[in-house]
């Protein structure tokens, strides 16, 4: 086979694989949206679910998922970005640094059910936090922290060495060089890592069964006292997320329209993830242009 023919064959194979992946994703999204979007309404998005009769919605579960996302990012992003900066700029090569990287790789491959059991034994029982949003956020941090550390480290290392050396040559400190020169360049990659971590927060169910719980108290959305057990802003209350609700309503099947509720909830979950991804990418480009003064 000549080089020209081999190049043509390789190009066709690569394009075919890419088209197959796009078609598979489009088919999956289309199936979920077409099956569930007809069940979405304002009442469905705002009302509480019914377990013994038809009707109800996913209002508390949708709010719990968004609240859990915020709590998890508040914990994960500072720790992950800080650890990534340390590993790329401050940690000296050696056995200790290699051991830290090994631990990060091991944590990133842990099964979610194992992390859930760890959260149940340590976070829920040993620390006495109980089934709560905060316990779920800590368990999800175990998932997302290795990803954030690894992506931040690679993003910082990907900054051209000439820019770093030029900043240091001008008399800027190492920290000022990191925050003013390297971080703006690495920001789009870090935001991509945050998006990947956030997608896992939305879709995770196994770990949250053992940490956040499978029930939610009746929330009073007029009560904004974060210490009240019925307040939606209380991070120490049990909370059923949207992904857990989909699993629960399918497994129990108590509601007559359980299949329709699960289909609508799945469509809402996909739409929320897509909206979050697009918004986060727009914000990343906006911050990159602002921090680097590029047009």
Describe the structure using short key phrases.
2 domains, mainly alpha, MetI-like fold, globular
Describe the structure.
This protein has helices at residues 3-36, 42-46, 59-90, 95-108, 112-126, 133-157, 161-169, 174-203, 206-209, 242-252, 258-292. By secondary structure, the protein is an all-alpha fold. It has two domains: 1-39; 42-292, MetI-like fold (Orthogonal Bundle). The radius of gyration is 23 Å and the shape is globular. The model has no long low-confidence stretch (mean pLDDT 84).
Instruction: Tell me the number of helical segments per DSSP (H or I, 4 or more residues long).
Output: 11
The beta-strand count equals 0
Q: Determine the CATH topology of the largest domain.
A: MetI-like fold
CATH class of the largest domain: Mainly Alpha
Query: In sequence order, what are the helices and strands, one letter per element?
Result: HHHHHHHHHHH
Q: Uncertain regions: pLDDT < 50 for 5+ in a row?
A: none
The helix/strand class is: mainly alpha
CATH architecture descriptor of the largest domain: Orthogonal Bundle
Mean pLDDT: 84
| CATH homologous superfamily heading of the largest domain | MetI-like
Query: Strand count, sense and closure of the main sheet?
Result: none
Work out the strand percent: under 5%
Separation, N- and C-terminal Cα atoms: 47 Å
How many discrete domains? 2
State Rg: 23 Å
Helix fraction, binned, reads over 70%
- What is the 3D form? globular
């Amino acid at each position: 086979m000549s080089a020209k023919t081999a190049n043509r064959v390789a190009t066709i194979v690569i394009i075919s694989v890419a088209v197959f992946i796009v078609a598979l994703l489009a088919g999956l999204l289309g199936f979920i949206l077409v099956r569930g979007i007809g069940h979405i309404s304002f009442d469905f998005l705002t009302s509480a679910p019914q377990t013994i009769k038809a009707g109800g919605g996913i209002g508390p579960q949708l709010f719990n998922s968004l609240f859990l996302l915020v709590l998890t990012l508040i914990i994960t992003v500072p720790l992950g970005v800080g650890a990534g900066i340390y590993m790329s700029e401050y940690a000296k090569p050696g056995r200790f640094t290699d051991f830290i990287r090994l631990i990060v790789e091991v944590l990133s491959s842990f099964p979610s059910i194992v992390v859930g059991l760890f959260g149940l034994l340590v976070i829920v029982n040993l620390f006495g936090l109980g089934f709560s949003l905060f316990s779920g956020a800590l368990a999800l941090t175990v998932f997302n922290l290795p990803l954030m550390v690894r992506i931040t480290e690679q993003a910082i290392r990907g900054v051209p060495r000439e820019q770093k050396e030029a900043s240091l040559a001008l008399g800027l400190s190492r920290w000022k060089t990191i925050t003013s020169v390297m971080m703006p360049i690495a920001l789009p990659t870090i935001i991509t890592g945050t998006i990947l971590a956030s997608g896992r927060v939305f879709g995770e169910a196994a770990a949250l069964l053992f940490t956040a719980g499978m029930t939610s108290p009746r929330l009073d959305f007029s009560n904004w006292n974060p210490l009240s057990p019925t307040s939606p802003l209380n991070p120490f209350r049990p909370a059923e997320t949207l992904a857990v609700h989909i699993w629960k309503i399918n497994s129990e099947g108590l509601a007559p329209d359980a299949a329709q509720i699960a289909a609508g909830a799945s469509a809402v979950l996909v739409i929320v993830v897509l909206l979050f991804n697009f918004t986060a990418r727009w914000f990343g480009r906006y911050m990159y242009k602002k921090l680097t003064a590029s047009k």
